[in-house]
Model the fold of this input.
Amino acid sequence: MKYATKSMIVIAFLSALFSFAKFDHCLNTNFATPDVYTHACYSDLPALFGARNLVNHAWPYSSATNSVEYPPVTGVVMWVTSLPTHSDKTYFLINIGLIAFLFIGVALLVARMKPELWYLLPLSPAVIASLYINWDLWAVASAIAAVYFFDRRKYDYSALLLGLSIATKFFPIVLLAPIALIFYRRHEMKKAIHYLVVTGGAWLLINAPFIIFNRAGWWRFFAMNKDRGVDFGSLWYALNLFGISTKNLNNLSILLFLIGLAAYAVYFFGLGELPSLATTSFIVVAIFTISSKVYSPQYVLWLTPLAILAMRGARDRSAFWIWQGAEVLYHLAIWEYLASYSGSHFGIPAKAYAAATLIRVGATLFFLVRVSTRSPAPQNLEFLISQTEGYA
Done:
């Protein structure tokens, strides 16, 4: 067991080094434009170090107009790691060191939950390519830990970790949907309410000081997401590039997510065997990313661990690599598309980028269907009705 753990750590560490090699060119050129796009090594870490005045160690929520665009835990991490340096290179190195450590931790968690397939995480090319784009691993680690404890029915630990994760990126709030489905299916609504209270309490405890003392700076993250228009990587952006306009985007995005969630809920309640949270989370998060107003390349860091936990058998492995290939294609396409706007002699046209986006969305749907339909077939309508009796 100790030998296996050491092997896991070594493989994950080597993947982190490969990712560093990808970003090394930009580190040597001081993250200059258009190099960051043509060499696909852009990172928010040095970009926001200067843009959010972290270079002068400014408190990340002190400004109503230039606060960091993340929830408090990420903002504090950004600020604390800025204190030892005024150099964006050193700042980048400090942060990627911590991210690499978190990545190893996530790999070990996945190995405990899916020992036969854990190796897919450190070998995933889209994960290696995206590891140091942003601070997402801070939230991913606590979210995967929340899933780990939930499937072991240690609900208080899970709820506390999920509250921490939501206070880090807010993205994992969508995990409450599969959690609610599982509790409902088990007829454990008191536990569901308790879980929600603990999660909300943990989130509020972390956010309260920021709400009280830096409300305008704290609210900027929520305002930016509410007011955000169609953005890079989304289905909606690709449709716009093909000349299909999307109006009322907030409502449209939410509606598509709810439709997808409702469709999965119907399927979920018809399953003879209750899936684990580890299995259902990928499907719900994938639906969310497909319907969202933006898809950043590092979102694959959220999807991949959950995808591996949802897999079973050789058929799923084949589908996994098809999906990863589409993610890599999109990863290259977004940077080359941005390069065309930054004075580079290289780049791809808008419609090629839109096509890459739709390929990624299609591959995600394909993989989603594969990992969901490999579960036991839905039972008849009478079973579905019997599962919901007493809750009408």
